[in-house]
Write a structure and sequence with these properties.
Elements (H helix, E strand, L loop, with lengths): L1 E6 L6 H14 L4 E5 L6 H5 L8 E4 L2 E5 L2 H22 L4 H7 L5 H16 L4 E5 L3 H9 L2 H28 L9 H25 L5 E8 L2 H16 L4 E9 L10 H18 L4 E5 L8 H12 L15 E4 L5 E7 L8 E6 L2 E6 L2 E6 L2 H4 L2 E8 L2 E7 L4
Parallel strand pairs: 1-5, 1-6, 2-4, 2-5, 6-7, 7-8
Antiparallel strand pairs: 3-4, 9-10, 10-15, 11-12, 12-13, 14-15
Helix pairs in contact: 1-11, 3-4, 3-5, 3-8, 5-8, 6-9
Length: 398
């Protein structure tokens, strides 16, 4: 199964592009499901059908689902939460507060990832299209399960440690009565937590395997939106997620001849050129601003035609490396590797501002926005080795 994740700044048209991509895959004969992980669901509006927390058939070979956080939490976390909630209630925490304690940071979003695992393991679909939340939420989602694991392991350790002391005493005084937690729940809860994280780890392995999964960044031809897309691309590199295309949506078409739009069209053209500088050899797909509202299968077909023409969107669109960020031995030491190909050393020019690197190779230029981890570090070396420019960042000497 191929997994394609669309993400980008809120309002750039990820949902319409996800729906159009899914429809094109389905009409190519691929059994396809499109799911929305954005809490502000609009997938049903894009498809012009009613969509719920379980998959519904919306066209031949095409299913859609708007993932409901509460529904997913109950499905994947309910039994563990029942155990923890009962335990903390028993220890004197009000039942409402106990329920809040057991909502682990990031786990609500993590429950969305578990659907991906379920569909991949079941093997019922050829293609899974994910209409992801805006970029900040998606980065948090993809950086799971590390953060969530820290919380869960400590919470379970507290519960298990106290329970090992309290339970024998409680059994002594409650002979003949069932434990208020339920022996079966308590004994299985920790195993279920481990299974939960094994599954999340599996999802991460799946999404970082370019043979199975691709991240596609959706943007508009506006400088501020492109800058956020650059940051997103760099952060995705931190977690080894493979981006295989940049999709620029809502470009003013040539047939718009009204002088009012001339300035906008010139600015968009300049910004699209900037996208090429920023993302190098990544495929750049564009879609126009349509003269009517996007929604319904016919409009989605038109959008897919503009984006993909005769191309199969389920195929891997790019298998190269635009740039790669690697953590070295020290936490405060990083290596940014930028492929330069057959450029000569004397053709290279490097300029760095606090949050951005501008790299010139002859007449061509690349802009790379740096993640927060690198902004306070200084460049200690830049070496051209084996067709890569290797830029080393380290802590400033005190």
């Amino acid at each position: 199964m191929r997994v394609i994740v669309h993400t980008g700044k809120g309002g750039v048209g990820k949902t319409s592009i996800s729906a159009a991509t899914a429809l094109r895959c389905a009409e190519l004969g691929l059994k396809t499901i499109v799911v929305s992980t954005d809490t502000a669901h609009s997938l049903g509006d894009a498809l012009d059908v009613e969509v719920g927390p379980e998959p519904v058939l919306v066209a031949d070979n095409l299913w859609a689902q708007e993932i409901d956080t509460r529904y997913s939490m109950q499905k994947y976390w309910g039994r563990i939460q029942e155990y923890l909630g009962a335990f903390f209630s028993r220890e004197g925490i009000a039942k409402v507060n106990a329920a809040e304690v057991t909502i682990i940071p990031g786990l609500e979003e993590g429950a969305q990832l578990l659907w991906i695992s379920e569909y991949f393991q079941a093997g019922e679909y050829d293609v899974l299209i994910v209409d992801a939340a805006p970029t900040a939420e998606t980065i948090r989602l993809l950086s799971l399960p590390d953060v969530t694991r820290w919380w869960v392991e400590r919470l379970m350790r507290i519960a298990r440690g106290l329970d090992s002391v309290i339970r024998p005493v409680q059994r002594l005084f409650n002979r003949g009565r069932k434990n208020d937690i339920g022996i079966d729940i308590a004994e299985n809860a920790w195993d279920q937590v481990q299974m939960l994280f094994d599954t999340l780890d599996g999802v991460r392995e799946l999404l970082t395997n370019p043979e199975h999964a691709s991240i596609r960044l959706v943007t508009n031809a506006e400088r501020m939106v492109i800058r956020e897309t650059q940051r997103t691309y760099t952060y995705l590199n931190l977690y080894d997620y493979a981006t295989d295309a940049i999709l620029v949506n809502r470009v003013f078409p040539d047939e718009i001849q009204d002088p009012f739009f001339d300035v906008w069209k010139r600015r968009q053209a300049k910004n699209i050129e900037f996208v090429g500088e920023a993302f190098g050899s990544l495929p750049l797909l564009t879609a126009p601003l349509f003269g009517e509202e996007m929604g319904g299968l016919e409009m989605l077909r038109r959008l897919a035609d503009e984006l993909y023409a005769d191309r199969n969107p389920a195929e891997r669109l790019f298998d190269g490396v635009v740039h790669k960020l690697e953590r070295l031995d020290s936490d405060a030491s990083w290596l940014l590797r930028v492929p330069i190909g057959f450029a000569r050393k004397e053709q290279l020019d490097l300029f760095r501002s606090r949050d951005e690197i501008t790299l010139s190779v002859g007449p061509y230029r690349r802009n790379i926005v740096l993640p927060d981890e690198l902004q306070e570090l200084e460049i200690t070396s830049a070496k051209f080795e084996d067709k890569f420019l290797n830029i080393r960042f380290e802590q400033r000497a005190s």
